[in-house]
């Protein structure tokens, strides 16, 4: 490598890491923003306001870049259903959970999603149920129990925990669906269409949003705009950029920092921290996630290459879902010989 190209290569190597860092920070701030705005805006109205801003921003990006090739028929319906689940139902569950739980505790619950992704992959994608997955699920379940009884005075807030777990399930289901859909639709188009679907499904709360914001301080309206513009539109675009330039397993590991960031931001901005027992439960949840997502040495050596579910579409491997690493099963011998990584020479 010549000395003139070395600085450029180093800058290119840093960009995905910077994009991932921006995404994690923005997603962490979303938990705090939802908790703050939730004092003045009801969950459904907050979801609609967030998605309305995000859809407007993503539409502007799409128009600037030129209208993409649209999926049709069943694929369009599948993308719409994904958007309803991810941008609609997930936001509703998350917003409702944070009316019962502080932001840090909610983040600890939602971060169970990688474990649930593995379970859903075992059920629907033929990945099976290795021992490490079952052990991780058991550990994480123990953490959930501790979080459930960690309310003030040991009072269990089962409604809040149930809503947080519902958000985690929706996250996981949307992630597994996204794995399949990204093989046929690019990330920007899918995110844009999904955000439109999420906006439509939450539109019945438009009158409530107008009513709540009219009585709320200006800061609440600015928080709603922030949630739609940054943790949704900007963060998803940054995530797609990073995901197209590194392995999914490496990128997904950065999301484990989200609960810690949420706790820190919540303490600084809202003067809230989870109860001590919730910290212990959250730590168990994170340990369970780490155990369940651990891989054998052989699997680690082959991380980043397509699995049979990719149907040998190597381009899809750069768009894997968090917590769902590729395997070497479908990697052609020619790629192994030439040392291609993540299908980069095929895209």
TrEMBL record:
Q: Which SUPFAM superfamilies match?
A: Multidrug resistance efflux transporter EmrE
Q: Signal peptide span per the entry? A: none
Q: From the record, give the transmembrane residue ranges.
A: 46-64, 76-94, 106-126, 133-153, 159-177, 189-207, 219-239, 251-269, 275-292
Q: Which UniProt keywords apply?
A: Membrane, Transmembrane, Transmembrane helix
Q: Where is this region: Disordered?
A: 323-347
Gene Ontology CC: membrane
Q: Which residues form the EamA domain?
A: 18-148, 159-291
- Which Pfam family is one of this chain's hits? EamA
- Residue spans of biased composition, Low complexity class: 327-341
Q: Which family does it belong to?
A: Belongs to the EamA transporter family.
**This protein is called what?**
Drug/metabolite transporter (DMT)-like permease
